[in-house]
Design goal:
about 80 residues, 4 helices
Length: about 80
């Protein structure tokens, strides 16, 4: 008997519980990114087969886990 033959036509989820950890996994936010940055991550995402928002999250998580510090130099241009 194959997998498709053992599937029910309908399932009863009336007694199902929501995953209590689901909200802890990710939080939806609004972030403003410039267009070249978005396009960069979209290109990399296309090559890797990972959705670009997931790729941005992975990159930011890696920075946070490694405690990377941003080095910025705000010198005024002449």
């Amino acid at each position: 008997m194959g997998k498709a033959e053992t599937m029910k036509k309908e399932y009863d989820f009336s007694r199902a519980r929501k995953n209590p950890y689901a909200k802890r996994l990710k939080k939806q936010i609004t972030i403003r990114l410039d267009e070249p940055t978005i396009e960069y991550f979209k290109r990399v995402a296309e090559l890797s087969g990972i959705p670009y928002q997931t790729l941005i999250n992975l990159y930011l998580r890696d920075c946070a886990q490694k405690g990377r510090k941003l080095s910025m130099d705000w010198r005024a241009s002449a």
